[in-house]
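dude i think i finally got it to work??
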Amino acid sequence: QKQAEEEARYQRWINGSWDFFQSREPAGPGEYCTALYQNRDGLIAVSGFDKSWDGALLMFTGEKIPKPRKFREITATLTQTGDAPAKVKVYNYARDPKMGEFGTLVFAVPTMKSALEGMTDELEFAIDVEGKEVFRMAWKDGLKAVAELRKCVSKR
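look at this
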């Protein structure tokens, strides 16, 4: 039984899968709605906030992403399927021992609505920092994530 569960979890990771949850406790209805996609290349999360801000965060976690000692703001170039590369300010989280060799970059999106409108069923992201690619990953079943996030944030 336990081995079968571990095998199923491993297959979800190899094939890529979504998880949906509220990323903070306590959270009111429709707050901190999060869709997390993971596979062997890393993690991508789209997360909303509380009643005080309509924005969203797009977070990328991977092995090649810098792991600074302190939280910092840096410039990165984000390329998404079908879009021209965009140079933007991003947040680079400080090294977290729980994350092992993985670093995290966080992009602020003005509204959850615009984040959802930009999500397609299949989407690949590439991120360069200082001219070096630090992250490349694609998701699938993105429209399922859009539906789940819309359902969650509509409860606000």
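The longest helix spans residues 2-15.
im so relieved honestly
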